[in-house]
Design a protein that fits this description.
Keywords: Acyltransferase, Lipoprotein, Membrane, Palmitate, Transferase, Transmembrane, Transmembrane helix. The protein is built from 14 helices and 11 strands. With 398 residues, the protein is mostly helical. It has 3 domains: 74 residues, no CATH class; 245 residues, no CATH class; 54 residues, no CATH class. It starts with a helix and ends in a 7-residue tail after the last helix. 24% of the residues are buried. The structure holds zinc ion (2 copies).
């Protein structure tokens, strides 16, 4: 099995694993094979690993491992930040040693002497911005402002108190147990930047993703061009190869040329392949994030909508008529009534008890939801408006 086939196998397996971990919980996959695989990887695998370790290493070691994993997963620490910085710096070092001396050449213009340092600076700069910018931490001082920016849709966000911060949680906010704060328009907690991603720093997070993806593809492109220049220099295109068995001579093939180069420039080839693969992974994540932006949902909200979609698919979702009208904008007169209800939320068919109303009355009071398209996401202002909201977020301290 040659290097190319091996790389393809590993990439496919890795892509499947990432897909299962990212989308296995989605309502569409939850009850199927991918959902089962997701539960296997996230529930059963850690459970059996824990049991096996208990048998092999004993309780004391497992307890230490537990507290170690608790620290890794549930507290704020810079380990992944350090890992990212080491990875990027290591790759830049390998590039500097193996590729930089070859620039410029017949395939790489002089402009790259200036763009490479610029690209490197932008990666470190965006990493610092994303890691140390305020994601939109809510305090007693700016909470009223946040409450006035986002109204409750009474579907995925209803007025609730944060017991830790001791104030009313604005719509679209979430309390992060790692940062120990409520974050305005919370997206998710990102361990790579050791920071929450929210209303104020989502743009820096996107910039960080774009520059990481950019440097990865740029690096692999430069490696490719350096290889092409090197092939010309070594006149590889004119080589002949001899078949070991038949002793037949033939011109070197396209695949053989590249295998020859990979064999002679191992370090540079490894860097190029690693950068290209890393770029693909980050690009896939960028596409996912942008699809959420264009739909007007945060990562946190996408999980909430997924749960609602799951209930709809199971035929378990009915919505109070008042809420349905409010959601569809027919709420001018009823607004006060709906708001007064406060916690009016979509009701699951299962578990409703003690209904004194007649069947017909009940049918009028509730709307049966057959598809997620029947529910409007009031935070979706259109792709362009959503993007502008991210690039130029309204300030929280005014
Ligand atoms: Zn809080
Ligand atoms: Zn956080």
């Amino acid at each position: 099995m040659d290097v190319v086939t091996l790389v393809i196998i590993y990439v496919t397996l890795f892509a499947c694993l990432v897909f299962i971990l990212l989308f296995g919980e989605a309502s569409f996959f939850r009850d199927g094979f991918i959902g089962r695989m997701h539960r296997g990887l996230t529930d059963s695998f850690p459970h059996y690993l824990h049991k096996t370790l208990l048998m092999i290493c004993g309780q004391r070691v497992v307890r230490k491992l537990d507290s170690g994993s608790k620290y890794l997963l549930e507290s704020r620490h810079p380990l992944l930040q350090i890992f990212y910085l080491s990875l990027i710096t290591g790759c830049i070092f390998i590039f500097w040693q193996n590729a930089w001396p070859a620039i410029p050449n017949s395939h790489v213009g002089k402009i790259h002497v200036y763009t490479v340092p610029l690209m490197i600076a932008s990666v470190y700069g965006s990493f610092i911005l994303a890691s140390w910018s305020n994601p939109g931490v809510l305090t007693r001082e700016n909470n009223d402002r946040a409450l006035s920016i986002w109204e409750y849709d009474h579907i995925i966000f209803t007025p609730k108190m944060c017991r830790t911060c001791q104030f009313q949680k604005p719509a679209r906010s979430k309390h992060c147990s790692i940062c120990k704060a409520c974050i305005a328009k919370s997206d998710h907690h990102c361990a790579w930047i050791n920071n929450c991603v929210g209303h104020l720093n989502y743009r820096w997070f996107l910039l960080f993703l774009f520059t990481t993806c950019g440097i990865a593809f740029y690096g692999s492109y430069l490696v490719l061009q350096i290889f092409r220049a090197e092939m010309d220099k070594r006149q590889i295109h004119d080589l002949w190869v001899m078949d070991r068995i038949t002793q037949e001579r033939s011109r070197i093939s396209f695949k053989q040329k590249w295998l020859y180069m990979i064999h002679h420039e191992m370090m540079l080839a490894a860097l190029g392949i690693f950068a290209a693969l890393g770029g693909i992974v980050v690009l896939a994540f960028i596409c996912y994030q942008l699809s959420l932006v264009f739909r007007g949902v945060t990562t946190n909200e996408s999980f909430k909508w997924d749960d609602i979609d799951y209930d709809i698919r199971k035929g378990q979702l009915r919505m109070p008529r008042e809420l349905y009208d409010f959601n569809h904008g027919r709420h001018e007169e009823d607004q006060s009534t709906t708001r007064a209800k406060g916690n009016t939320t979509a009701t699951r068919r299962k578990g409703r008890k003690g209904n004194e109303k007649s069947h017909d009355q009940e049918r009028d009071d509730y709307v049966s939801i057959k598809s997620i398209a029947q529910i409007k996401n009031i935070y979706h202002g259109g792709p362009w408006a959503n993007l502008m909201d991210i690039l130029f977020p309204s300030p929280l301290n005014v």
